[in-house]
Amino acid sequence: MNTNKPSLVPSAMAGGLFLGIVSGVPLLNCLNCACCLAIILGGLLSSYLYLRNYPVSLPPFSYGDGAVLGLLTGVFGTVFWAFIHVLFQLLKQMMGFTAAGMGMLQEAVANPNVPPEVRELIQEIIQEYVSSSPFSPFSLIISITFMGIISLVFATIGSIIGVALFQKK
Q1: pLDDT tens, per residue, the chain with 169 residues
Q2: In Å, how far are 49, 102, 105, 109 from 114, measured between CA atoms?
Q3: 3-class DSSP state of 161
Q4: What integer pLDDT is reported at residue 2 of this predicted model?
Q5: 76 neighbors 20 (Cβ within 8 angstroms)
Q6: Contact 157, 40 (CB under 8 A)
Q7: Rounded to an integer, what distance in angstroms lies between the CA atom of residue 20 and that of residue 58?
Q8: Phi and psi dihedrals of 62, rounded to 5?
Q9: Which of 21, 20, 13, 63 is nearest to 151 (CA)?
Q10: CB within 8 A of 127, min separation 6: which ones?
Q11: What angle do CA 89, 125, 127 make, to 5 degrees?
Q12: Three-state DSSP class for residue 166
């Protein structure tokens, strides 16, 4: 009898990808306002994907195994979320202020009615903006840490619920 359990990683990655995308994309992330629903669904998805091909010949998949699967899903979900979060922060930075604010600042610099001291100040602001990072590393670390903790807890809950729902009797 084969007692080797299939790897948890592919199912955890799939659930984590779902968790990361839904939690990272604006408007979709509103699902998490309902008791972290997207994160719980990521855990449920990972346990469903794992248990649908789980061999009947193996011992039953325990709730402890489900918790490990959920923790792994939370880790992958946090990594995917962080990537998407940074991407959207960069897009917001580039599209938001650059398009509207930079145009107005550059018009002010070109306006002959603007005093030279104000022009110099505006040019310094433009230069500071161009050379600065879009968001602080500290806020990014705090965001990733917070998301990691929430993802670990709620993906684990979702995965354990999934074991209860999808375990072959």
Answers
A1: 456 889 999 999 999 999 999 999 888 888 888 889 999 999 999 999 999 988 888 888 999 999 999 999 999 999 999 999 999 888 777 665 555 666 777 787 788 888 888 888 877 777 766 655 556 788 889 999 999 999 999 999 999 999 999 998 7
A2: 64, 16, 11, 7
A3: helix
A4: 56
A5: yes
A6: yes
A7: 31
A8: -85, 170
A9: 20
A10: none
A11: 80
A12: helix
* In the chain, alpha helices (H): 9-24, 37-52, 63-92, 103-110, 116-131, 137-166
Instruction: Check if the beta carbon of residue 16 is closer than 8 Å to that of residue 74.
Output: yes
What distance in Å separates the CA atoms of residue 52 and residue 47, rounded to the nearest whole number? 8
Using alpha carbons, select from 73, 82, 72 the residue that is nearest to residue 18: 73
Task: Give me the pLDDT at residue 67, please.
Answer: 97
**Cβ atoms 43, 150 nearer than 8 A:** no
Write the CA distances from 133 to 6, 73, 82, 90, 95, integer angstroms.
43, 30, 17, 9, 15
| Residue 37 backbone phi and psi in degrees, to 5 | -60, -45
- Spatial CB neighbours of 9, under 8 Å, sequence gap ≥ 6: 72
SS3 call for 53: coil
- What's the confidence (pLDDT) of residue 112? 84
Distance CA 30, CA 38 (A): 9
Closest listed residue to residue 123, CA positions, set 135, 111, 137, 136: 111
